[in-house]
Amino acid sequence: MEQQVVLNKLQDIISFYLEDPLEVTMDTHILKDLTVNSFDYSSIIADIEEIFNITIDDLTIYYIKDLVQIIMDRKEI
User: Considering its fold, how many domains does the chain have in total?
Assistant: First the structure.
């Protein structure tokens, strides 16, 4: 799966939780840049796990680039 495809899917997932549309890039910090609260962060992670059929064990991952890497690594298994 290509990095841009993963990023686009993450943008779709995250945009559901935002009041105002914001650009999500690889360097976006979910809590700081998008002002998502911890409940929404947990919901985003749960949505990612369901959509990509993976498990994310480390809930201290906040940068989009790290989520993209985890998804790409796990989808290649």
Answer: 1
